Amino acid sequence: MPKPDIYLSVIVPAYNEAGRIEKTLRRFNEYFAKQTYTYEILVVNDGSKDGTSEIVDKMIGEIRNMRMIDRKQNKGKGYTVREGMLASYGRIRLFTDADNATDISHFEKMRPYFDKNFEVVICSRDERDAPGARQAVKQPFWKRLFGNMGNLYIQWMAVKGIWDTQCGFKAFRDFAAEKIFLLARIDRWAFDVEALAIARKMDYRIAIVPAYWENDPKTHVNIRSYFKTLWEVFKISRLMRRLAWRLYQNDELA
User: Fold this and answer.
1) Does the keyword Transferase apply (predicted)?
2) Nearest to 76 by CA among 222, 197, 187, 204
3) What is the CATH number of the domain that holds 86?
4) Structural domain count of the chain
């Protein structure tokens, strides 16, 4: 069966998002109604317990070009994004959070870079990455403190030169998405770091655009999540050393 010809796939990982996902999907529908390109919306339910899948299922007939992967077991955001990236059809594949904290319209800033043949384009909330990046309401002090400290560690261990690796709005060309996420192993919070580190290993060009980010106080991220992320980053640094050797061997065999 031939693959559908779709320009953009939007992957939405969803875990216990019953209170937010309907508003987000309606915003997507409003935005895409004004676009001329082909698209799909793929919601990947990560074993939600709060009725998320039921809400999305009811909306499939109302929201155009939307489908769902309804997994009953919780496996983590990284696993869920990876599943969506590999199951989608778009020539460009974007993942974004279910709260729409980085509005879907940010994709307009990304398109010029894909037109220039960049393989990866990400949003950043940090002006050191992209002038003009800002937050509508700043995060609590403890989150900013842990975020800044954690980023220095991330740069040291895995992805040098990117100040915001965790903004949940990243897009990939189809071939890059497939290569990156077939290699990816991190199932939970630090999957963004791993994806960027693999992209660097493959010499993919990464562009960064500024985000206008609206912090949602109902976020699932807590202090424990930060420490789990740091542990995962340590594992990523080890995986990258192994990946470098695997890529070298593949080049030698080509």
Assistant:
1) yes
2) 187
3) 3.90.550.10
4) 1
